[in-house]
Amino acid sequence: MIKKKYLVLFAFSLPGIFFNNFARATILNNSYKEVIDHVWQIVYRDFLDSNGKFEKSDWIELRKKFLSKKYSDSKEAYDAIRDMLSNLDDPYTRFLEPKEFSQMKIDTSGELTGVGIQIVKDKESDSIIIVSPVEGTPAYEAGIKAKDKILSIDDVSTKGMDIENAVKLIRGQRGTKVKLEILRDARSFFKTLLREKIEIKTVISKVNKTKNGFLIGYIRIKQFNANASKETREAIQDLEIKKVAGYVLDLRSNPGGLLESSIDISRQFINKGTIVITVSKDGFREIKKGKSQALTDKPLVVLVDEGSASASEIVSGAIKDNNRGKLVGKKTFGKGLVQSMRSIVDGSGLTVTVAKYLTPNGTDINKFGIVPDIQVRMNINPIRQSQIGTRKDNQYRAGEKELVNIITKNQVSQFVPKTSNLGAFLKINKANSVYSLN
After folding, report:
1. 335 is an active site residue
2. Active site residue: 288, 335, 356, 401, which one?
3. Distance (Å, rounded) from C-alpha 283 to C-alpha 265?
4. Which position among 37, 162, 321, 393 bears the catalytic label?
5. Relative to the CA of 166, which of 102, 121, 284, 343 has its CA 20 to 30 Å away?
6. How far is CA 414 from the centre of its chain?
7. 233 pLDDT band (50/70/90 cuts)?
């Protein structure tokens, strides 16, 4: 392999004490090519082409093209890698310089630096699109929304800009500001955001009491990072002790995260049945199922919206297809691809699409999203963060109404005439006659 050749050349050149300029240039040039080839090898071996346009013969020709050139510094090599990856027509397979890769690893561990958005490059419109703002971050507080387009960053147009340069411009030193020009519904406007380093609590939970006295366990998951599964487990266990009658799981504006986190959280609600089906580039199908270890079997409603993406769609798809609960809100983002983070020899990194996932019923939701059972728009007038997950929140209110309907139906179905259940039956009917959200 050419990668080994460059390693050998580099190793044999190192022992020399005196280098002439040509020898130094040869070593550096080969090390840059080693980085390029490492990225090429990963894509060649593992990349899943979701668009049907990837031809291995073309990729082999690209390798010859990029390895035949000389590179004087890392910038030239990194630009070449991005140019090479642009041929894949996959916005999720992208190269990260060492600092960016280090930051991504921090992000998935539960700490976020910057303004709190995840972005993607849409090739069809040549636009930088926001997948979702993360709750509690400067972008979220400023009213940034999923599927907003970024037209410029600090007055630099994003037209023709790749995702890495956009990330570079948006991120910066803590305490400094960045100005974004946003396009939403054919209207453009500016937002100036303060860059921050924020420790994000992934999961929040509370008990809500309905008008007719039912206790509802409300759980909001903001991101599927390394802490999400543990925090969700603790939330469910606490709410079970508090004797809630059912759950509202809020996945709105959750951009996704780690695959294993989404699978484990699904298992906390789904006892048996398929959670997700992943399909590799070779067509190998791996099925993840429940392990008969669900923490609750109580009625469940899941809130989703346009910012619910990736891992959020795995959980919501599993719950919907297993008839475990109802989905309420708006159609999800539509990201049905799985990326793997790979370290490159110089400390840089690559997120490469390695699989696609299907919901338990075999549905491919990539670019299509998941349509909720009950479609409800969010409030026309923005609500305060403290009002999310309360009756002032349109989507939550609709979800709570559906959850109460499920709870009461379940309790009525358990009623047995001429038994002590009569009191409960009368209480339910009284509650039904009072409860209304119209």
Report:
1. yes
2. 335
3. 26
4. 321
5. 343
6. 39
7. very high
